[in-house]
Task: structure prediction
Amino acid sequence: MKLLGRADSLNVRKVLWAVSELGTSIDREDYGGPFGKNDTPEYLKMNPNGLVPILVDGETAIWESNTIIRYLAAVTPNDGFFGRDAASTAQISQWMDWQLTSLNPHMQVLFAQIVKLGDKRNEKVVEDNTTTINKLLNEVLAKSLPDQGFLTGSKVTAGDVCVGVMLHRYVSLLGASGLADRVIAYHRALADRLGFKTYVAIGKP
Result:
């Protein structure tokens, strides 16, 4: 298997962290950003969106980082990283979907305003999206986390990886002062993971 995508892409970093949690490794080739190659006919045949990453496994090409993680968990022997039965798998999957549909849109806007626009950013847009993200993290996430451990217990799962990369982006952009104590503790626990240190905390949001 090979992962196509530049190492500093957040979605590539997410997959690489998941690979680390699965206790395996994967080859990676730079695509996208300054490396280009994601607009070629060959690439677009595999992913018509032209985005990174793509996982290539033999004749199979898979895009969308959360789906790539689900696939990797399915083909890699592991200790419940994506659940052990229908109920536990659904509990993990719901957090992966929550990251994608609820948290990610507002975080993308915030990232674009702060990082890409810089001094030209719209402060009202920043304020509105920060308020929404704080509500999601401090009400939905904080109230769902157990007193100790991770989203579904004592082990890191695919849900933690997907939520964790967005939480890293938040802390990198805004710091942790606006977060509930339980969310701060959760972020610290994730930040102690080897895969997080190696692939996620690379000095950029």
